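Q: My labmate handed me this sequence with no annotations at all. I'd like to see what the chain might look like in three dimensions before we decide whether it's worth expressing. Could you predict it?
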Amino acid sequence: RVATFLRGKHKPTFTAHLDMGDNVIVVNASRVKLTGQKLDKKVYLYHTGYMGGQRETPLKKLMEKRPEEVVMRAVKGMLPKTRLGRKQLTNLRVYAGAEHPHAAQQPQVIEL
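A: Here is what I predict for the chain of 112 residues:
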């Protein structure tokens, strides 16, 4: 649902090549529920750029240190891999707890 709101697919005026989406605030990222054995078996990979520089970070460790990063990566994978997708990802704000500094914008609560 988050990726749908970022892209703007929930609007009748959706156009695939334009940024029609809304800004999205995700709270309580530390309380994300995962099914199966994902917490133990899922691993995020990255490469440093040097020979033999592939590094891995287990999901369990990432959830302890930066739970917002887990949600960001999940939503990023659902967006287009283009300049537009990167622009739409900047409209996403993720917070580990229930507090966020965007009360002045009067956000609407949408249950997932």
